[in-house]
Fold this sequence. Notes:
Blueprint: E1 7-10, E2 36-39, E3 51-56, H1 60-71, E4 76-82, H2 87-94, E5 98-102, H3 107-123, E6 128-133, H4 139-147, E7 151-154, H5 159-170, H6 178-186, H7 195-202, H8 206-216, H9 221-228, H10 232-246, H11 251-260
Parallel strand pairs: 3-4, 3-5, 5-6, 6-7
Antiparallel strand pairs: 1-2
Amino acid sequence: MKAGRSKGQIKGKGFDEEPDSVGRSRAPTPAGALPVHLPRDAPAASSEKAIRILLIAEHTLVRAGYRMLIDVQPAMRVVAEASRDEAIDIAGRETPDIILLGLDAEQQSLENDLDLISDLAISCPAARVLVLNQSDNSGIAEAAAHSGAMGLINKDDSVPTLIKAIEKVHSGEAWFDRSILGALLGRNPTNHANQQRDARIANLTQRERGVIALIAEGLKNKQIAERLFISETTVTHHLSSIFSKLEVSDRLELVIYAFAHKLARMPR
């Protein structure tokens, strides 16, 4: 006797909509999402290799919807869910690779969310924050980037875009619209004709320039070490020297600086 397999189909919805029923029903997904079939017997990801994800959103049903979308991915696993009040404690306990944070559209709550991004970066430095934007305010992406987020997904993006963004941010890349990257580059306070900038760049060693180029490609310290045949400790020392010489505070700021000053090539 052949065993049947039930499949549910996800259709695009707004962030705040609730599932129509329980179990195999449709879950809330970003508006305009492509249909995605969720097999009931999808293989579980290896706990050692899977991207560990923490979901942060106020509404339980919204978190449940995103969990359904992510847990069927063979290389991803939701390790915990949290409201904003629980976020710092749970992030510190679970040490996720990716923190998926749903931003609140209300201005006051949004300001609190931006503060939360900064707090998460301090309390869980190994994690990368990817924010889910429910607002039409184009300035939110820039504010989130300056607060420490490594990427932003808009409410109208598709489910495949969300999955790809998680993968890219986990690999060390920034996930922002090209127009947002352009705005971030344009707001970089360093002037191309500034003699101090020229002196800082001239002070970089050839090896440090090579490390910067690999950082801009999205490589992690271990991958850089393997590529350059050096230890991870040496990579860390190079990064400390680079941050000090260029007066940048983190990898995202370094990538923006590198693109702005031709130390790395913008991805096409």
